[in-house]
Amino acid sequence: MHLVAYHPRRITQPVQHVDQSWPTSGLGADILTGGRAIARVYLAPENQPLDFEVVDGYAPIALPPVKTHAVVVLEWRCEGWGARSTGSIEAVDQRR
Prior knowledge:
Layout: E1 2-4, E2 7-8, E3 18-20, E4 28-32, E5 38-44, E6 48-49, E7 58-62, E8 69-77, E9 84-86, E10 92-93
């Protein structure tokens, strides 16, 4: 999941430029698991683990402060092999 937080400069140029970026705080995402088991959640490229637990088919993830950009990686547990697979997110529910 790619997170981007910036304020574009509003000028008459054809291309918007990043003017300001403020760190966010108190954000989270509820990831719909679709019945699949999540092996691990972390920030890339820092490899910083993020806590999660699955509740009623969703994995609520509290996000650390985001400056301009962050990437959250979810590794899904592969059935039968015990291996991990980095997969895409099917749905993000912003119920908060």
